[in-house]
């Protein structure tokens, strides 16, 4: 079980409300479903596709799709939503927040260990975002073996600092064999937990495959 900072969780709940009001969560969810379903359908073993290439292609497709759809639709501007590119990947901007998409590592599908499966050192943009949150809200890593039976405040940390955290990661994962995705909101940090807090957004039902991936034999 992973434990998160309660102030961070409250901050994420506020952010979720903002994103719900603009329709961004539903928009990203539907886009992730469509991209994953399409790429499952065109996966080919004989072209040497594997889980990694499937994950990377979907990451890029989703980023490009969100950037294009938001830039081309004036309704998003009316809602105060913008999309820019940073090192080739989309960043969503709304209400002072900068939201970057993060794909769950392909081996974890939809069940990542948030404290073990993510590391920001491979991405300058993600590391910089985590550092900004750490500077704003320098919360210490949480130690599960020392956790009390109930949440307690952390007086050594400015409780208002977390309200100034504006760098948010929208994490998404998917099943290798099914068109089922999941999403979370997270506030990244540079301590050993990697996150101040993480909040679940959606979890698709594992419905039967609607498109037949090409690594399966087709039924007669």
* CA-atom Rg in angstroms: 18 Å
Total helices: the number is: 5
Q: How many strands?
A: 6
Largest sheet at a glance? Answer: 6 strands, mixed
Give the oligomeric state.
single chain
Taken together, the total number of domains comes to: 1
Shape: globular
- SSE class: alpha+beta
Task: Return the average pLDDT rounded to an integer.
Answer: 87
Estimate the strand proportion: 15-25%
Distance between the termini: 45 Å
What's the helix-strand series?
HHHHEEEHEEE
Uncertain parts: 210-220
Helix content: 25-40%
| Lateral arrangement of strands in the main beta sheet | 1-2-3-4-5-6
Description:
With 220 residues, the chain is α+β, with helices and mostly antiparallel strands. It has one domain (6-143, 160-203). The chain has helices at residues 6-22, 24-42, 51-72, 74-78, 124-136; strands spanning 81-86, 89-94, 97-103, 167-174, 181-188, 195-203. It has a 6-stranded mixed β-sheet with strand order 1-2-3-4-5-6.
